Amino acid sequence: MGFRIVSSAFKDKDYIPPWYSRSEGDASPPIGWTKPPNKTVTLALIVTCADADTDDVYCHWVMYNIPPKANTIYGKQPRNNVSHDGTLQGVNSFGGVGWGGPESNTPEQELLFKLYALDSKLDLPGGASHYDVEDAMKDHILEETELTGKFESR
Length: 154
Prior knowledge:
By secondary structure, the protein is mainly β. It has one helix spanning 130-137; strands at 5-6, 14-15, 31-33, 42-50, 57-66, 72-73, 88-89, 108-118, 141-152. A six-stranded mixed sheet has the order 2-9-8-4-5-7, with helices on one face. A three-stranded antiparallel sheet has the order 1-3-6, with no helix packed on it.
C-alpha cells in the first residue's frame, strides 16, 4: 500500500465541500497519511492549483516540519506560523499564513495536495513561501504522495 495522503472531507479526484472555500468559511480540510518511509524525519505539505487562464501556480497551503508520527492535520487549523508540535505554516498566494481556500471566480479548479516525506528538518522560519520550502526540500525527499480535490463554485 505504501505512503499515502488521504482526507476525511473528500476522496481523491472528488469534490471538496464548499465550506473549505474562501466564500463559505475558508476552513482548512483535515489531512491524514499512512506510515511514511523509514528514516522520515519530517513531512511537508504543499497545496497548489494551476490557473487555467494564466498558467500561474497558486499556493493554497504550505506546512513543513510536520512530525511524521502525528499522521493527521486536523481541519480548521489556526492561521499562525508555528503550532504546538513545531509544525510551521507558510504564506499562501493570497498573502496570508495558513490555508487559503479556492475562490468562486472560476467554473472548476483542481487542488493538488502533495505530501513529502523528508530525511531532515527544514531550516526555514515560519511564514516561508512554497518556493522556499520546495528549494529547501531538494535532495531531502524520500517519497511523495498526492491527493487531488476538485472545487466547483455553486
